[in-house]
Amino acid sequence: MLKGSAMAKDLPTSPLAPAQFPNLLPVAGVEFATTATNSRYKGRDDLLLAVFAEGTEVAGVFTRSKAPSAAVDWCRAALGVTAGKGVRALVVNAGNANAFTGRAGKATVEAVAAEVAATLGCAPHDVMQASTGVIGNPLDPAVITAHLPMLAGALGATAWDKAANAIRTTDTFPKGSCRIAEIDGYPVVIDGIAKGSGMIAPDMATMLSFVFTNAAIPAAVLQDILAGTVDRTFNCITVDSDTSTSDTLLAFATGQNARHQAITSFDDPRLDDFKVKFEEVLLELAHLVVKDGEGAEKFVTIRVSGAEDDRAARKVGLAIANSPLIKTAIAGADANWGRVVMAVGKSGEAADRDKIDIDIGGQPVTREGMVLPDYDEARATEHFKTRDVQIDVALGIGTGKATVWTCDLTHGYISINADYRS
Amino acid sequence: MLKGSAMAKDLPTSPLAPAQFPNLLPVAGVEFATTATNSRYKGRDDLLLAVFAEGTEVAGVFTRSKAPSAAVDWCRAALGVTAGKGVRALVVNAGNANAFTGRAGKATVEAVAAEVAATLGCAPHDVMQASTGVIGNPLDPAVITAHLPMLAGALGATAWDKAANAIRTTDTFPKGSCRIAEIDGYPVVIDGIAKGSGMIAPDMATMLSFVFTNAAIPAAVLQDILAGTVDRTFNCITVDSDTSTSDTLLAFATGQNARHQAITSFDDPRLDDFKVKFEEVLLELAHLVVKDGEGAEKFVTIRVSGAEDDRAARKVGLAIANSPLIKTAIAGADANWGRVVMAVGKSGEAADRDKIDIDIGGQPVTREGMVLPDYDEARATEHFKTRDVQIDVALGIGTGKATVWTCDLTHGYISINADYRS
């Protein structure tokens, strides 16, 4: 049954992967450790424990799935109790999603939280959890708890690549991003890691991602920043239109070594640079998730303008990005722009067929609903053969706009998923 | 650019194709002829002309795409003029969808209708049209009109296989169905043909299909029968979640040799058998479309029960049927029922994770949100290796139910679509 475990190791690194894992700076107040449980994956780290300084605040967004994992239920409930104040730990395991595991799943997250709380001397609801991997298999809490003493004894602040590696499932490379923002003229660090390669569609956080900063930002403000940013980043990517049961995005603000004055409002202009850098981190992570889309060979940017409003533009963009016919055409370097029209039509959003302008790789293809006489298909085909594909669609209806990102649909996707688990 | 034309001929017949084209009886009042225009496809028929006796009535349902083809626009407008009375002809070409062709596309359908009308001595709005194939290429009306005199001189009532063949694009086999219904104790024939293998998703007729009967049924009644039946047949199939710009389903009732008394109401109990047989024809055609899904190797039936209502059940069923992760798991004979839970969750319909019952191939897999201790995964895997895959999902919420049909997502789909046009 565990053929997938061997395969996950054997998957070649995505051709869209960055040359190397970026340099993530330490975040004051964040320490972590990883280990290999040797349960689903053999010989590689698959368990992450992060421990936070007292006073750390947390914000979270989660899958909109009606069948969320036990860990998602746990986090939502814990945040309901603490309002995001005083979080002390994050535990992430890869290989088993602890989803659709019924009462046993709930018992597992309770047992893990209790054990972490005992180890660190905090309350169970100060422990955040996330699980990713196969759905429907019971997760023995001992797989996690047996390693807690060792992890708690091995905490450090620098091995971000190991943290990013430990949360991978079929990801072919670890994903991280780092920025330095200024608040009151003082620098704060923002680090992020993410995992996710299949079951990626925008209906909330769309995978696992954790962002850490030493800025001192109250949970309520952090939650507003997070929610707004997600709509322009993780909610604008799609790999296969499938929504995970486990999508979790948590942001932790330790407030350690943060020399800026207190922040109390989302609208505080002193947060401007932080918001920009925070969004850069999330966008970079979201792009990395797409670039590791299962079987992805091309990174596709779809810009929609002239829609009724921004929401409509995003819906049109996602209709294009989720179309198997468009994604396979890109895989085959077939500049089949007719399929773009099809996707605009099926989105259900307002469009006037005879006003749709399409550009491929910056080259105008159609104007006023007709292909241009001097459209050079060979040039569009050449563009579709590159790693970075750009499609622009102007609807000519209003001023709404959005950018979404996806990857092509290749034989690799079929191979990986026809064969992932058993 | 026309690599697709060679390829279309070379595609191997779907392994799910029936052994042979069924025996379709003649329909009194329907004559037709086919020919090869040698435009997109070389050496095979790609143009169909059907001519109807005076007094024939027609009903139609069309794509919900916001960017419909010129032929769809034409039919909708013509039906608006005639209310479906007195239709005389149907022209169908394959290879060029005449969609997103702007003013030129409109001029083409007008020219074709005028020429057919002149040939037959009827009004242009008595001519129905459908086009299928590549989107965005102008369609020269001469491709069609040059052949009209020959077609009008070659009309016959029996070569249904040729008619079904002439409307194919990437279809690997012709699709037909025939039933005999009784009205007032007198038999009437119902014949149907269809095409469609990609860009198949329920948002109306989802492909081209034409149904012919010699029953005498007023257009308004025929329209009600058609609309209700489509929701349980063509709107319950999906291949790739993409919606065509050209989907067209037309039903023609000639009234020739129909010895039954006049029908004036949809609720007339004398129509009961006709409705049953009409639905059988549409269902058979819809199943054949799925069985010719691009790259399909397995026919998948998904039955959903216990939903909030029938609409919710269909939405859950389609979320399962459209999930690339489920479709690839079926292709790989991986009984990954966790992905079914994922799809239920993402459908957005009411569900209680801890009440979901899943059966695979008749074997209970989960009850009350947990996998059963005696679930035999090897048996489920064996079932997934067969050509007919059955997944049952009981939500335990209400009494809504629906059945939807789809196929697996294979390397064949990628090969066909990465390479269809250019």
TrEMBL record, chains A, B:
Gene Ontology MF term list: L-glutamate N-acetyltransferase activity; L-glutamate N-acetyltransferase activity, acting on acetyl-L-ornithine as donor
Role this protein plays: Catalyzes two activities which are involved in the cyclic version of arginine biosynthesis: the synthesis of N-acetylglutamate from glutamate and acetyl-CoA as the acetyl donor, and of ornithine by transacetylation between N(2)-acetylornithine and glutamate.
Name of protein: Arginine biosynthesis bifunctional protein ArgJ
GO biological process: L-arginine biosynthetic process; ornithine biosynthetic process
EC number: 2.3.1.35, 2.3.1.1
Protein keywords: Acyltransferase, Amino-acid biosynthesis, Arginine biosynthesis, Autocatalytic cleavage, Cytoplasm, Multifunctional enzyme, Transferase
Reactions that this protein is recorded to catalyse: N(2)-acetyl-L-ornithine + L-glutamate = N-acetyl-L-glutamate + L-ornithine; L-glutamate + acetyl-CoA = N-acetyl-L-glutamate + CoA + H(+)
